Amino acid sequence: MTRISVKVDGTTYEDEVEPRLLLIHYLRDRLGLTGTPIGCDTSNCGACTVDLDGETVKSCSVLTVQADGSEVTTVQGLATNGEWHPLQKAFHEHHALQCGYCTPGMIMAARDLLSENPQPSADDVRHALEGNLCRCTGYQNIVRAVLAASGAPEADRASVASAASVASAASVASAASGQEART
Q: What is the largest CA-CA distance in the chain?
């Protein structure tokens, strides 16, 4: 066992942990912070994304002992005084979730993007979220929500839907002709 001290969502915890314990399991099983889901357990899907000392990490690929002396923020730690974080509000208002499984990781990755680039383009958002997979939404509403949280003009957010319509039309036309769509 290894003794650690870690601050999670503003609270400091001192614990004895197995050196091989993954951060995701520490957060969920030991601390009861189940807002961060276990997705693929291979760091491919991004559902378990958290903030570790100011950097986004996939908590299924970080050992808890690596977080010793660090500060971790989970999606549950974003709300302040019962008020949702602007990204949480935007995801809700713009229907940027369906099953909700990827949402915590998407929000944490988007938060990292907005801290580095407060006025991203739709392409910037897509690039920043490349390591986070969603099997339900088609991503347009996720991009729209991140742009809304950034304060992007409504015209920029509307262009996301327009681009999606063009890509969808191209896919249908290519499928009809028997060729693979390139979007």
A: 62
DSSP letter for each residue of 116-140: H-SS--HHHHHHHTTT---SSS-SH
Is the CB of residue 28 less than 8 Å from the CB of residue 89?
A: no
Q: Any residues with CB less than 8 A from the CB of 130 and at least 6 apart, and which?
A: none
Nearest to 44 by CA among 140, 109, 130, 111: 130
H/E stretch holding 16 reads strand 11-17
**Residue listed under structure tokens 């002396």:** 69
- DSSP codes joined into one string, 23-41: HHHIIIIIT--TTS---SS
CB-based contacts of 57, cutoff 8 Å, min separation 6: 23, 49, 50, 51
Q: How many Cβ atoms from other residues are within 10 Å of residue 20's Cβ?
A: 10
Q: pLDDT tens-digit profile of 45-91?
A: 999 999 999 999 999 999 999 999 999 999 999 999 999 999 999 99
pLDDT tens, residue by residue, 14-23: 999 999 999 9
Residues in the chain: 183
Cα of first residue to Cα of last residue in the chain, in angstroms, is 50
